[in-house]
Write a structure and sequence with these properties.
Elements: E1 2-4, H1 9-26, E2 39-41, H2 52-59, E3 72-81, E4 86-96
Antiparallel strand pairs: 1-2, 3-4
């Protein structure tokens, strides 16, 4: 289940900057996962399922928008195992962001 983030210009700029820093330090292979629209992943499914009921409930939440304040970036090594149907990650570093 995914929640779209909008407006997402500032988050996209942060995402781009972090990816470029990682690419500079760790090389192109460290940022192989393609990204597009900014979003927040709420959950993953281990097998085929419909999210229709959950999406209907989420559409009724009011207010329908909430501010997002990012205070740090987590550098993680993500591993997807398609056989086990799992996604795991190991935290490599925490990067605090300045500002209030």
């Amino acid at each position: 289940m995914i929640a779209d983030l909008h407006p997402d210009e500032q988050l996209a700029a942060l995402h781009y900057t972090v990816r470029e820093a990682i690419r500079t330090v760790r090389g192109d292979d460290a940022v192989r996962y393609p990204w597009g629209l900014q979003h927040l992943t709420i959950s993953y499914a281990r097998e085929e399922a419909s999210s229709d009921d959950a999406q209907r409930i989420l559409r009724r939440v009011r207010p329908s928008h909430a501010p997002l304040h990012v205070t740090e970036v987590q550098l993680v090594d993500v591993t997807a195992d398609s056989n086990a149907k799992t996604i795991t990650w190991e935290r490599l570093a925490t990067i605090p962001l300045g500002g209030a």
